Amino acid sequence: MTISELIKSINDTADSPDHVNKEERLELRTACERLRGSLESPLDASMRFGFAGYESMALRLGIDMKLFDDVAAISADGGKLRIEELTSKMDADSLLVTRIVRMLVCMNLFTEVAQGTFKSTPLARVYVTESPLAQAVIHVTAQLECLSRLPDYFEKNGFKNPDDAYNGPLQYAMNTDLHCFELMATRPKLQHTFNTFFPVETKLRVQSDSAPILIDIGGGLGHDLIAFKQKHPTLPGELIVQDLPIVIDSVKDLPSGISAMKHDFFATQPIKDAKAYYLRAVLHDWPDKQALKILDGYARVERAAILGTCGLRHDGWRLVDGAYTGTVQGLVGGGGVCGGRSLDATGSDAWVRDADRSCSEEGIGGF
Question: Cys staple from 241: which of 52, 118, 183, 222, with CB 3.0 to 4.6 Å?
Answer without folding.
Answer: 222
